[in-house]
């Protein structure tokens, strides 16, 4: 019956169109998120990139300066050293906490019962709970002339080493770094403990039967088994190190001199003390690119099986 | 007898681990204890790092409460959290539902862009956000913080909720469709009740990051009394940098709310933080 065919096709087309319209209607659910994200997250990122090519004090006219702000990031000693400091901080925010957490997790695993105790768990999480700014205040006090650090040194007979750590030209950045160690160690320990509990015990037994000692077991079973968790720790702590602001701003504001200047504080100063919005944006863009350049390969490294 | 040797042996075997975990716990808490010890010293004295004051001046906390304007700050922080968290959780859940369950066209593209901006540091948005909120006439008000924070929370929140929706069996939505439930009813009657644990964890993480927000609060709100508590800490420390006793008492009060909430909801927090990091 040839006469019915067009109608059936018509219905099918109409049905398809209706389905298509219904799938697009689903965007109504995503629209509020898209709007907030677009206006207050994505667009500002684009604006930052745009600002970075201009000289602008935020009030007067802006002038196009091409890549001048970017060359300044790498030639101005304060800006460039802030980037170097950020990399130095990775040692304390990431390498040290992950190492400590690995040791703690392996030792506790060998005790079989994954007992950490409610109290220990609470204490380990405390640094992660309080605002970074408050950690800055707490450690300013720890490092002060008569604070706990010097008190301890004097108690063990190393009083000659005591100093005002955050005001010391040689030690300030390292002292700031150890605040980062304090912030990340607890979280990493808990993460790795949770991860090591998931490793199949038979893997360790098999390794033992093959004659593997504790160190070989660690390298052959623990490390690969914790790959994902280590990846997580490394990623979030590296971002915290590179983009640090709260802790440094409250502990030292970048001083003494520019010994503890980090990109976050430098961006803040350029924009809101010096009114150099273009230069601030260029440094922020470079910082964002560095974060992506460091984090993206890590993702690949830790994700693949 | 053999039982006792057994316990001794277990204890000895466990000792290194217990010592290690005790040391880690101590290390986490010493800076805070040191603050408490300083906060209890007589005002105007120079306390030393860690010592139990023979005559603890608990009244310092009362003084610090009024000096640091804690009542005002609590109200301001609560207002900001209430402005950000419910809205952000709701719209992120809806968006994740649209992307993962309704499979909206170009949803993948939207999701990919969100994930790509997930790791961007706040530094890259502060200058434009300052200019934008100024142009909108919001600078200096709590809206200047609430609206941008909702936007800044979207990548992680959508990512988190999508991870949940992906794990929900497809048959569930199809069954809902057959029963004649539209996408709204399917979301609110079938998916939301199932997503409750994921939503609760997300809300806790977002509460924590909003309450502790520092950089945006510092830049977008001039008046410390309208900031988050963390943001107000900066003004307080500049004002009282020389008075170690009041400074520490005030700083402790400022961080007390998160610590209290953490202690009450500890199990949920631990779960959320561990999951949150693994998913992120």
TrEMBL record, chain A:
Keyword Cell membrane applies: yes
Transferase is among the record's keywords: no
Membrane disposition: Multi-pass membrane protein
Location in or out of the cell: Cell membrane
Biological process per Gene Ontology, one example term: transmembrane transport
Chain ranges passing through the membrane: 24-46, 86-108, 120-142, 171-194, 230-251, 277-298
Keywords, ordered alphabetically: Cell membrane, Membrane, Sugar transport, Transmembrane, Transmembrane helix, Transport
Pfam families, alphabetized: BPD_transp_1
Cellular component, GO annotation: plasma membrane
Ranges for domain ABC transmembrane type-1: 83-298
Family: Belongs to the binding-protein-dependent transport system permease family.
Designated name of the protein: MalF-type ABC sugar transport systems permease component
TrEMBL record, chain B:
Domain ABC transmembrane type-1: 74-265
GO biological process terms on file: transmembrane transport
Main location: membrane
Record-annotated membrane-spanning stretches: 18-41, 79-102, 109-130, 142-161, 198-221, 245-265
UniProt keyword list: Cell membrane, Membrane, Sugar transport, Transmembrane, Transmembrane helix, Transport
InterPro entries the UniProt entry points to: MetI-like (IPR000515), MetI-like_sf (IPR035906)
Subcellular location: Cell membrane
CDD domains cross-referenced by the UniProt entry: TM_PBP2
Membrane topology type: Multi-pass membrane protein
Protein name: Multiple sugar transport system permease protein
GO cellular component annotations of the record: plasma membrane
Family: Belongs to the binding-protein-dependent transport system permease family.
PANTHER family: ABC TRANSPORTER PERMEASE PROTEIN MG189-RELATED (PTHR43744:SF12), ABC TRANSPORTER PERMEASE PROTEIN MG189-RELATED-RELATED (PTHR43744)
Organism listed in the record: Streptomyces bingchenggensis (strain BCW-1)
């Amino acid at each position: 019956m040839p006469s019915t065919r067009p109608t059936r096709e018509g219905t099918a087309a109409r049905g398809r169109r209706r389905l298509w319209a219904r799938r697009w209607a689903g965007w109504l659910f995503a629209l509020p998120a898209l709007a907030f994200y677009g206006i207050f997250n994505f667009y500002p990122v684009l604006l930052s990139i745009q600002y970075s090519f201009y000289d602008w004090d935020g009030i007067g006219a802006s002038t196009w300066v091409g890549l001048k702000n970017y060359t300044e990031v790498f030639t101005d000693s304060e800006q460039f050293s802030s980037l170097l400091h950020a990399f130095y901080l990775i040692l304390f925010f990431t390498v040290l906490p992950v190492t400590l957490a690995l040791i703690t997790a392996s030792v506790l695993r060998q005790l079989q019962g994954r007992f950490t105790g409610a109290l220990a768990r609470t204490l380990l999480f405390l640094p992660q709970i309080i605002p970074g700014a408050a950690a800055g205040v707490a450690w300013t006090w720890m490092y002060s002339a008569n604070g706990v650090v010097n008190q301890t040194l004097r108690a063990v007979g190393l009083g000659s080493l005591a100093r005002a750590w955050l005001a010391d030209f040689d030690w300030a950045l390292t002292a700031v770094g150890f605040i980062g160690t304090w912030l990340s160690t607890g979280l990493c320990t808990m993460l790795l403990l949770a991860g090591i509990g998931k490793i199949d015990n038979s893997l360790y037994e098999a390794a033992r039967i093959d004659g593997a000692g504790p160190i070989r077991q660690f390298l052959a079973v623990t490390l690969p088994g914790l790959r994902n968790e280590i990846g997580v720790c490394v990623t979030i702590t590296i971002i915290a190190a590179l983009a640090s602001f709260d802790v440094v701003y409250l502990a030292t504001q970048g001083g003494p001199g520019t010994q503890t200047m980090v990109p976050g504080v430098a961006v803040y100063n350029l924009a809101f003390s010096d009114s150099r919005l273009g230069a601030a944006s260029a440094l922020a863009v470079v910082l964002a690119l560095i974060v992506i350049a460091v984090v993206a390969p890590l993702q690949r490294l830790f994700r693949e099986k | 007898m053999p039982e006792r040797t057994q316990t001794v042996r277990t204890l000895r075997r466990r000792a290194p681990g217990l010592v290690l975990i005790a040391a880690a716990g101590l290390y986490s808490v010493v800076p805070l204890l040191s603050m408490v010890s300083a906060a209890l010293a007589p005002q105007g004295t120079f306390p030393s790092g860690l010592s139990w004051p023979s005559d603890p001046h608990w009244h310092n906390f009362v003084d610090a409460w009024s000096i640091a304007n804690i009542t005002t700050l609590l109200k301001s922080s609560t207002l900001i959290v209430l402005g950000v968290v419910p809205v952000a959780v709701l719209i992120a859940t809806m968006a994740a539902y649209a992307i993962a369950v309704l499979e909206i066209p170009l949803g993948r593209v939207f999701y990919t862009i969100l994930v790509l901006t997930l790791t961007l540091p706040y530094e890259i948005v502060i200058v434009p956000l300052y200019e934008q909120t100024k142009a909108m006439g919001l600078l200096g008000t709590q809206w200047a913080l609430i609206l941008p924070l909702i936007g800044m929370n979207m990548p992680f929140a959508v990512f988190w909720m999508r991870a949940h929706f992906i794990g929900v069996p497809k048959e569930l939505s199809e069954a809902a469709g057959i029963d004649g439930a539209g996408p709204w009813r399917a979301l609110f009657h079938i998916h939301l009740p199932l997503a409750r644990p994921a939503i609760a964890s997300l809300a806790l993480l977002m509460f924590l990051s909003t309450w502790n927000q520092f950089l945006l609060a510092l830049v977008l709100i001039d008046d410390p009394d309208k900031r988050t508590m963390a943001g107000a800490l900066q003004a307080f420390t500049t004002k009282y940098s020389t008075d170690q006793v009041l400074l520490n008492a005030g700083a402790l009060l400022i961080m007390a709310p998160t610590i209290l909430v953490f202690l009450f909801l500890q199990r949920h927090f631990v779960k959320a933080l561990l999951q949150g990091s693994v998913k992120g």
